[in-house]
Amino acid sequence: MEKRARFKSAWVPYALVTPQILVTLLFFFWPAAQALYQSVLIQDSFGTSSQFVWFDNFRDLFNDANYLESFKTTAMFSIMVAVFGLSLALILAVFADRIVKGASVYKTFLIWPYAVSPVVVGVLWLFLLNPTLGVVAHALRDIGIEWDNLLNGTHAMILIVLAAIWKQISYNFLFFLAGLQAIPKSLIEAAAIDGAGPVRRFFTIVFPLLSPTTFFLLVINIVYSFFDTFAIIEATTHGGPGKETEILVYKVFQDGFKGGDLGSSAAQSVILMFIVITLTVVQFKYVERKVQYS
Predict the structure, then answer these.
(1) Best CA proximity match to 125, nearest among 95, 156, 163
(2) Bond prior to 241 in cis (omega within 30° of 0)
(3) Counting C-beta atoms within 10 Å of the first and last residue's C-beta, which end of the chain has fewer, N or C?
């Protein structure tokens, strides 16, 4: 028989969920409501006076070439982080699933990056790719690549993509490894007996059975690249050189906290919130239909 928790008092279940509800209201719904309210206002830098302007902040944003360029930068950044991050994590998970000797040590080293804060990750990669002192930069120069993320926008983008992937790869690796270990070995053995090679077995059996995990991680990585990479950019490029690495979430900070344009910053945060909500809804509503569940 299935065991279920039974509460004698009617208020106990509500008391148990109350802390989570309060946290959600205070740190999610309240800031979202404040952003919606401030997005239709023009305020001074200190928030002492404001004027209701309806949707002027949103109209000004979509007439701003710099803001439209940040959309392109964010899209390119999120696609690279999601695609390369998931691909590399899947390859590492496949190798880890096959290793017999030293498997625990191998897996431990791959999990470690997730415990490092984004700021530390940014500083670490900034030192490695520093044009003057970086070990990796010197190695690239030895093979004829003049690396300079301080002046070259492409190099700066590569820097933050590498840092973002390295930070998230442990999370992706854990889920892929768990998914691989959940696949019945009898299916793979049967395919091998039928003459299917390793590559064919992977694409016809393993990868389709991993589609729920891949779909989940795709959503998580897109949201991660939109929001959680702010600290990496702040620690490395500050949105530069120029505005080559200024993604949407960093532009919110740049215009609001540094530029003092609170109304525009609030409008940007509202747009960013709706973009992420829309992407998540579209993926779960339409992409999920093509996901094969075992």
Answers:
(1) 163
(2) yes
(3) N
